[in-house]
Write a structure and sequence with these properties.
Elements lengths: L2 E8 L8 H10 L7 E9 L16 H9 L2
Antiparallel strand pairs: 1-2
Length: 71
C-alpha cells in the first residue's frame, strides 16, 4: 500500500519573493524561507503503478483531495 501525505504549510514572506517563488523554493529546496508545517495527514492511495491517476501531471487537485475526504 502506498501512502500520500498532506501538509498544511504557512510561510511568512519577509523577502517579498511572491507566491510562485515561494512555491518553487518549497518544491526545489530552500535557503531563503523557513516553512512551518502546521497540520499533516496521510491517506492510503492503493498500489502504485505507472498509470496511477496521481502519476499524471494533469491530474486536478480535486482528485488528490478526495483521498483525504475518507479520513
Amino acid at each position: 500500500m502506498t501512502k500520500m501525505y498532506l501538509l498544511e504549510v504557512y510561510v511568512i514572506d519577509h523577502e517579498n519573493m511572491g507566491l510562485e517563488s515561494i512555491k518553487d523554493e518549497i518544491e526545489n529546496g530552500s535557503k531563503y524561507i523557513n516553512p512551518n508545517v502546521m497540520a499533516a495527514g496521510e491517506a492510503d492511495i492503493g498500489e502504485w503503478e505507472d498509470d496511477h491517476i496521481l502519476n499524471k501531471s494533469a491530474t486536478p487537485v480535486s482528485v488528490y483531495r478526495k483521498y483525504f475526504e475518507k479520513n
